[in-house]
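Sequence in, structure out. Go.
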Amino acid sequence: MPIESAFQIALTERAAELAIWATKPPLSADSSEAWAEQAFASIYADYVSTQLRLSDLIEDTSIRANLAAVDSASEKANANRTLPVSRSVDFFQRHVAEATESENVENLEQVCGRYTDR
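Output:
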């Protein structure tokens, strides 16, 4: 039995759920949907830095359809992004909607955890 990461499972076995949570973030980072929040944060950070759509890399049509919804959420969030790419790409740990909902993010650590550019 091969070992799969939580990220791999999110992109395959749980792609339909991921598509839902990418468009509607979990109510709490402490919820049971934290896996989806973390997966989408990683996908979004990759999208911001590469502009590549994840769904274009997947052959399975049922998974591709779900990941296309995730890509659309990434594109929408990127269009509304207010943080500079250099500060947002590597450090997103939460759903991007938390960062883009408010123009009043005074402390980057609220969005990015304890990591900031040094």
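Check: The chain has a mean pLDDT of 75. The CA atoms of residues 23 and 73 lie 6 Å apart.
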